[in-house]
C-alpha cells in the first residue's frame, strides 16, 4: 500500500527551502526541487511515497502553483519523481544510484567523497589475528547445526563479564547476542512495543532508531536536549515520563548520539524510578559506553538502578571495534531474553558463529584495543575542534567528553542547504533534521571525528568555502543531491 505525504507535512520537512538571504537567488522551482532531492537523499522522505497534489503543496508553501509544477517537472527529468495522469506522483531515485552501507542511497561515483555522514572507525589491527584465531576455534562447532538464538556461550559469558566489571552483576542467561545494535533494538521493539504504541525519545536522537520506530508505527514524543554541556533537563525528562506515560522510552545516556552528552548518575537513578512509576520500559543504548575520552569517569549503568526489570540495555561492537563485525547484544532479565530469542527465530534464527568467535577474541584483548581507540579519537576530536575554531568561528561547538561526534550549532538555519552544497565539493554531511522529526534542527549539524585528522581538516576547509558561498554567490546549477548516512 502506497503511503502519502500531505502538503502541510512536506512543508514542515522542507523547512527553509528558499535560497538564503544575501545571495543571488536561483529560481524558486529549482530551489524547491533541490530541497525535495535532499529529503530523498538523507532518508527523511522515503521512496515510493505519493507527493501532495500541486495545488495542495502550493497552498502549504504559499507559492504559486506554477512554481510547484515546474519543480515537479524538474524532479521527473532528474529521475526523482514518477507521475501518472489522474493518479499522482511518487518519489523515486535515478538508476545511477546504489544502496550504501548505511542503507541510504548514494551515487555510483562517490568513491572519493570525504564522508562525514558515517560515525564509525576503520577496523583495528587486532581484527585479523582475532579472525585467524576464530577459525581455529570453529571446528568444535561444526558438528552441530550452528543455530544459537541467544548466542554462543563464550561470547555471552564475555559480555556478561563486561557488565559485571562495570558494577552491574550479570550472568550469561541475561545476554542475547544479536547481529548488531540496530538488530538488538528491532528485536526489543518487536517484543516490547505493539504497533502504534507510544514512545518517548530524546531530541536530537539516532536516526536509525527513529526509522525502527516508524516501522512499528510508533507514536513518538520527544524531550529536547540542550546545546550546552548539560544535555538533559531533569525536570523535562522526568516530567515527560510522568505526563506522557509512554509504553517505552529510548535513551542514549553514554555520549549521546549525536550530541556527545553523558547523563549524570543522579538523573539515571531518577529516570529509572520515574519509568517504573509510569509503567514505562527503558531501552538504553550503550553503543558508546567504551569510549570516554580525557579520563572521564563513567557513572554506573542505568540498569544498575533497576529493581523491576524495567531496563533493557543494548550495545555492540560497532563503535569501539568495527562496524563490519555485526555483533550486538541485549542485556535483560533471563525470562525477557528467552522471549526475545523466541521472537528472533522468526526473523534470522541466529548470529554467525564465526563472527561471534572473532568477537570473543577481540573482547579478550579489549583493554589494549579500546585504549588505542580512545587515544586516536581524542587526537582527531581536538584536530576537528581546532579546524572549526579557525575556519568557522561563528559555529558553537561543545567539546564532548567521549563518543565519536560533535554537535555543532550553526550560524543560521542552513544545515540542509549546506549539506546539499557540500556534496559539490566532495564532502558528505548528516544535517541536523536527520536527527529529529518534521524538519526541525536546521541550525545543527553532526560532525563525527572518526576520520584521520588530515581528512577532517580538509573537510572543514571545504565547508568554510561552501558556507561563504551560500551567502555570497549563486550556484549556477543544481546537482542531484546524494545520500547522507
How do the helices and strands line up, and which of them pair or pack?
Elements: H1 7-14, H2 28-41, H3 54-61, H4 65-77, E1 81-84, E2 88-91, E3 97-99, E4 105-107, E5 114-115, H5 127-137, H6 153-165, E6 175-178, H7 181-192, E7 198-203, H8 207-215, E8 219-224, H9 234-244, E9 248-251, H10 265-278, E10 281-285, E11 311-316, E12 328-331, H11 334-344, H12 353-364, H13 366-391, E13 396-397, E14 405-409, H14 415-424, E15 427-428, E16 430-431, E17 444-448, H15 453-472
Helix pairs in contact: 1-3, 2-4, 3-4, 5-12, 6-12, 7-8, 7-11, 9-10, 13-15, 14-15
Characterize this entry briefly:
The protein is an alpha/beta fold.
Report on this structure:
The protein is an alpha/beta fold. The chain is 40% helix and 14% strand. It has helices at residues 7-14, 28-41, 54-61, 65-77, 127-137, 153-165, 181-192, 207-215, 234-244, 265-278, 334-344, 353-364, 366-391, 415-424, 453-472, and strands at 81-84, 88-91, 97-99, 105-107, 114-115, 175-178, 198-203, 219-224, 248-251, 281-285, 311-316, 328-331, 396-397, 405-409, 427-428, 430-431, 444-448. The strands form five sheets. The chain has a seven-stranded mixed sheet with strand order 6-12-11-10-9-7-8, with helices on both faces. The protein has a four-stranded antiparallel sheet with strand order 13-14-17-16. The protein is globular and about 65 Å long. Residues 473-485 have low confidence and may be disordered.
Amino acid at each position: 500500500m502506497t503511503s502519502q505525504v500531505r502538503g502541510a507535512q512536506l512543508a514542515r520537512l522542507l523547512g527553509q527551502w528558499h535560497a538564503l538571504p544575501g545571495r543571488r537567488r536561483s529560481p524558486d522551482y529549482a530551489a524547491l526541487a533541490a530541497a525535495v532531492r535532499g529529503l530523498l537523499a538523507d532518508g527523511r522522505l522515503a521512496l515510493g511515497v505519493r507527493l501532495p497534489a500541486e495545488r495542495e503543496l502550493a497552498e502549504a508553501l504559499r507559492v504559486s502553483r506554477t512554481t510547484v509544477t515546474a519543480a515537479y517537472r524538474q524532479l521527473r527529468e532528474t529521475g526523482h519523481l514518477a507521475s501518472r495522469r489522474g493518479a499522482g506522483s511518487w518519489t523515486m531515485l535515478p538508476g545511477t544510484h546504489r544502496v550504501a552501507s548505511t542503507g541510504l542511497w548514494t551515487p555510483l561515483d562517490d568513491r572519493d567523497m570525504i564522508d562525514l555522514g558515517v560515525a564509525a572507525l576503520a577496523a583495528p589491527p587486532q581484527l585479523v589475528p582475532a579472525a585467524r584465531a576464530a577459525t581455529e576455534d570453529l571446528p568444535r562447532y561444526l558438528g552441530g547445526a550452528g543455530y544459537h538464538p541467544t548466542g554462543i556461550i563464550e561470547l555471552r559469558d564475555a559480555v556478561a563479564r563486561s557488565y559485571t566489571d562495570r558494577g552491574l552483576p550479570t550472568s550469561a542467561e541475561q545476554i542475547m547476542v544479536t547481529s548488531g545494535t540496530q538488530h538488538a533494538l528491532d528485536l526489543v521493539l518487536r517484543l516490547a512495543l505493539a504497533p502504534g504504541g507510544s514512545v518517548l525519545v530524546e531530541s536530537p536522537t539516532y536516526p536509525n532508531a527513529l526509522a525502527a520506530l516508524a516501522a512499528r508505527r510508533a507514536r513518538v514524543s520527544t524531550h529536547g536536549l540542550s546545546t550546552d554541556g548539560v544535555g538533559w533537563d531533569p525536570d523535562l525528562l522526568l516530567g515527560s515520563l510522568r505526563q506522557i506515560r509512554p509504553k517505552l522510552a529510548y535513551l542514549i545516556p553514554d555520549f549521546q548520539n549525536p550530541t556527545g552528552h553523558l547523563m549524570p548518575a543522579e538523573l539515571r537513578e531518577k529516570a529509572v524510578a520515574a519509568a517504573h512509576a509510569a509503567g514505562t520500559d527503558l531501552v538504553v543504548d550503550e553503543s558508546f559506553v567504551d569510549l570516554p575520552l580525557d579520563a572521564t569517569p563513567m557513572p554506573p549503568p542505568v540498569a544498575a538502578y533497576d529493581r523491576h526489570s524495567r531496563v533493557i540495555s543494548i550495545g555492540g561492537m560497532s563503535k569501539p571495534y568495527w562496524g563490519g563485525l555485526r555483533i550486538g547484544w541485549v542485556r535483560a532479565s533471563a525470562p525477557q531474553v528467552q522471549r526475545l530469542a523466541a521472537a528472533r527465530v522468526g526473523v534470522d534464527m541466529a548470529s554467525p558463529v564465526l563472527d561471534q568467535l572473532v568477537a570473543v577474541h577481540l573482547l579478550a584483548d579489549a583493554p589494549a584495543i579500546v585504549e588505542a581507540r580512545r587515544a586516536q579519537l581524542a587526537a582527531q576530536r581536538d584536530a576537528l575542534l581546532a579546524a572549526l575554531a579557525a575556519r568557522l568561528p561563528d559555529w558553537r561547538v561543545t567539546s564532548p567528553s567521549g563518543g565519536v561526534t560533535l554537535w555543532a550549532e550553526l550560524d543560521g538555519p542552513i544545515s540542509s542547504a549546506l549539506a546539499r552544497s557540500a556534496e559539490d565539493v566532495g564532502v558528505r554531511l548528516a544535517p541536523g533534521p536527520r536527527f529529529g522529526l518534521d524538519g526541525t534542527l536546521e541550525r545543527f549539524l553532526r560532525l563525527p571525528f572518526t576520520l584521520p585528522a588530515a581528512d577532517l581538516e580538509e573537510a572543514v576547509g571545504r565547508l568554510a568555502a561552501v558556507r561563504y558561498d551560500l551567502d555570497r554567490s549563486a550556484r549556477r546549477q543544481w546537482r542531484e543531491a546524494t545520500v547522507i548516512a
